[in-house]
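Contributing: when you submit paired examples, paste them exactly as shown. First protein:
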Amino acid sequence: MPSKNMKRSIAIGGHETSLSLEHEFWSGVKEIASRRDLTLSQLIDEIGTGRTGNLSSAVRVYVLEHYQAEGLRRRAVAASAPSQAK
């Protein structure tokens, strides 16, 4: 079942803007901001800096790339861990 877009207003770069994301992407960007000890506005402002397209798309790509990189890091750690087999 497709996720419904949720539109929210957020202040970034000193002005109000609206951002429309699926619930899963809102959850992801909030979690990433929390882990980085940033406000949601700070992280979205950072994501939006230097973007060439739509802000909502930039946030989706950022969240996707974050979790892809996290998965790669976890696999690398698991691969380098000593084997438990005896």
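Second protein:
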Amino acid sequence: MLSKIKNWFKKSESKVDPPTPKVKRAKQVKDDDEAKMRNLAKEAATAKGEPWVAIINVDIDPNNINTGAFELDWNVPFLKKLIRAGYHQNENDTDEIMVDRWFQTVCRNIALEVYEQQMADPSNRGADDIRPPLSRKPLGGGRSEIS
């Protein structure tokens, strides 16, 4: 009896309801909108001749959160600025190599700034400070030897 009722509902649904169209997932729609906005910003900057770079995606290894990758996008004025700043170091350098060299420099500078800020706090410096203490030896005539 139940199987007859199930079959009856299946038949009526197929006759009445048209097939449902495929709908994009919400995340995919959001990603599409972000890509459109990013492209508009890139085109606007390029039209003005201004350098433009953006992080498109960050991939983190789920098994090791200390490992990951950044996906960047840039325009030609940004590349020209990198070349003028010395990031084009040999003839075989591609655009990707120059941008990667620049991004490594940015990351290195951030790490150094954080380290310097931590070391500026006396409570963070202790016995584990690897710098040896400085000694001053007067040489006379207003000169000193520091070692």
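If you have annotations for the second protein, write them as plain sentences, like these:
Residues 24-122 form one domain.
The beta strands are 53-61, 64-74, 136-140, 143-146.
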